[in-house]
Amino acid sequence: MGILKKLGNLVIISGFSGVGKGTVVQKLLEGSDHYALSISMTTRKPRDNEEHGVHYYFVKDEEFEDMIAKNGFLEHAGYVGCYYGTPRAFVEEHRGKGIDVILEIEVQGALQVKKRHPEAIMIFITTPNAREMERRLTNRKMDSYAKITSRMERAIEEAEQMKKYDYVVINDVLDDCVRTVEEIIVNEPSGPRYDPKFKDRFVESLKEIIVERKNCTEFSENR
Ligand code: 5GP
After folding, report:
1. Which of 23, 64, 71, 129 is most buried, by the most CB atoms less than 10 A from its CB?
2. Distance in Å, CA 76 to ligand 1 centroid
3. Residues 6+ positions from 13 with CB-CB distance below 8 Å
């Protein structure tokens, strides 16, 4: 009689933009060969440093829609005017071999996966506070001033979804954050996982910063 292998975990990592979730995931992958990162398909244009098949599969709308029609995605979602989706085959194949599969996806897609796979472990990564989020978005020099403001506006909506995640992890010191995520995957600790006061403070502070930034833009535009 064959021995049934335990399925690998399905781990969903989401978080505010600029929070460093990509770095957390890279560290997890470097630290162990028990993990495989799912490469998403997207219709957005590649950035300068991005490679097809490494960061994403960059495709045209028709190819993406064809994949939807063939039921080839575990989940897919629209995000700022482009499609993003998780190819199903990779996830099933690796989980079948007992390897933990990591999906780094946004909230709508994460909730679709959780509905189909209640066993998925959902982790939301956040900065310690909204000021730190603004600082990281500014320091990475990827977006214009206005784009950063709109990313922070979007974070207000995302913060409201934090409570649907199994765990919220603060990325303050990177190595600590990686260790916490790893502990969650291995042990699935129980106990309080979400602090509504943290979310309220975060959203309040986001709103204050957005007003400041918009006033600042008006000030510079009127000079
Ligand atoms: P970016 O364009 O900055 O690479 O990603 C934008 C957002 O899309 C990020 O929040 C990222 O986690 C999310 N994302 C990347 N791949 C997928 C995917 O396959 N499905 C969904 N639902 N979101 C994705």
Report:
1. 64
2. 9
3. 21, 24, 25, 102, 103, 104, 105, 123, 125, 181
